[in-house]
């Protein structure tokens, strides 16, 4: 994505890996030098390309955690 | 998004709500009449418009839950 500057400040965890080596990861990422946000996104090997994803605040992650803990997974 | 057919089969939980009424939701959604997937996404009020989001399998949700439970949120 041209023009978007980002820095992965912390790699928190890998949710899955596809047969082509793309990984779905939860990271802490700073976009355009702003304060870092939690980011759940697909990445090509070595983070060479990024796929679709969403950013979340700490409060959103907490709420998501509570929702997942209430599910019968 | 023109041409994409979807059905929200289950509304699992709301992660957050913005000042404009958009909500970040975890739902079980069938896309183009295929088997339903878990979907984390922003929605306008009444699900009138959809924003960015990602779909996940049950296995991915489990792993994400474990990652979140290991974090000091």
End-to-end Cα distance of chain A, whole Å, is: 35 Å
The oligomeric state of the chains shown is: homodimer
Characterize the overall form of chain A.
flat
The helicity of chain A comes to 10-25%
CATH architecture of chain A: Roll
Strand order of the largest sheet of chain A: 1-2-3-4
Under CATH at level 1, the class of chain A stands as Mainly Beta
How would a crystallographer describe the biggest sheet of chain A? 4 strands, antiparallel
Mean pLDDT of chain A: 95
Count every helix of chain A, treating DSSP H or I runs of 4 or more residues as helices. Answer: 1
The biggest chain-chain interface is:
A-B, 29 and 29 residues
Domain Transcriptional coactivator p15 (PC4) C-terminal (chains A, B): 19-67
GO molecular function (chains A, B): DNA binding
GO biological process, one term (chains A, B): regulation of DNA-templated transcription
Protein name (chains A, B): Transcriptional coactivator p15 (PC4) C-terminal domain-containing protein
